[in-house]
User: Which sequence fits this backbone?
């Protein structure tokens, strides 16, 4: 009996390995990224309380309206999350790539968030 979806299983194993060490607090929340086939979502999470402090996605406002490729879309979401975090006085975060490789959309989102003023 084999694994039905090896790619998803591998990502889940990587995700669990990462989450063992990464914990978000109110002062330094965890910046969790989820990537679907069409969209990209990011949340700033306080793991101590189990609350989402700030969230942004490519389905909201600017990123959804513009016709750009997915890497540009991720860049727009990165700048959006940085702006929202600044509004709530959050500068330092812990980056959680959620089992995805630091490449492509994940990388462009992270670089845009850094350029927007988030430190991780």
Assistant:
């Amino acid at each position: 009996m084999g694994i039905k979806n090896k790619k998803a299983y591998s990502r889940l194993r990587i995700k669990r390995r990462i989450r063992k060490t990464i914990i978000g607090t109110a002062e330094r929340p965890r910046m969790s990224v989820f990537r679907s086939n069409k969209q990209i979502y990011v949340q700033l999470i306080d793991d101590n309380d189990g609350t989402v402090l700030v969230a942004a996605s490519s389905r909201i406002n600017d990123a959804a309206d513009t016709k750009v490729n997915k890497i540009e879309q991720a860049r727009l979401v990165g700048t959006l999350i940085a702006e929202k975090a600044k509004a709530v006085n959050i500068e330092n975060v812990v980056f959680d790539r959620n089992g995805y490789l630091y490449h492509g959309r994940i990388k462009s989102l992270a670089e845009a968030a850094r350029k927007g003023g988030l430190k991780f």
